[in-house]
């Protein structure tokens, strides 16, 4: 009989994107996309995992990752090996900066910026960073995604300034969905593109510094006040 994982081992797996199902002997594998994109060859490999080790089904998540359910406990190492050989990334869980999402502004006629390029740059610098709870970042290409921008810990949305003839960016802080939902508001001022990653770094550092226990960023804003958090972050930006 195969040895069963302890609760500690299950928690360790969950942090890596391998999540124990309610069906106790089965696990969901979460695979990270390239900010919303998978190559056709990767989709074929993922389909093979689902057919060989799962129940033949693949599901999509709100953060543009793919999950394959019903992986047996005894097959976990085989799936990990298969994924590594094909450069499929398992992850997107735990108290970390989660998968970066972007709308299709790169190809959408309404998109004001190359959302995929900006999201990929952000992912390269911040994906997987440790935080007290979780931290979700979104990149959106136009005002049509305003509601989606309000549901992330940190969101970016362009706005064209016709008077200055230049692109500016709205930054949304402290949104979250779920049972303690909070709609993020854009900061009072707009920013240049070169400020975006500086602001993300400051926001994450601020989150790590101010969090009590496993608070989400939204809870810090609610506890300290939206204006104070915004002023603190802008002050830190000016002192870089």
UniProtKB/TrEMBL annotation:
It holds the Pfam family NIR_SIR_ferr. Residues 94-233 form the Nitrite/sulphite reductase 4Fe-4S domain. It comes from the Bacteria. One of its GO terms (molecular function) is oxidoreductase activity. The keyword Iron applies. InterPro entries: NIR_SIR_4Fe-4S, NiRdtase/SiRdtase_haem-b_fer, Nit/Sulf_reduc_fer-like_dom_sf, NO2/SO3_Rdtase_4Fe4S_dom, NO2/SO3_Rdtase_4Fe4S_sf. Signal peptide: none annotated. Residues 20-82 form the Nitrite/Sulfite reductase ferredoxin-like domain. Keywords: 4Fe-4S, Heme, Iron, Iron-sulfur, Metal-binding, Oxidoreductase. This is Dissimilatory sulfite reductase (Desulfoviridin), alpha and beta subunits. The lineage of its organism: Bacteria, Bacillati, Bacillota, Clostridia, Eubacteriales.
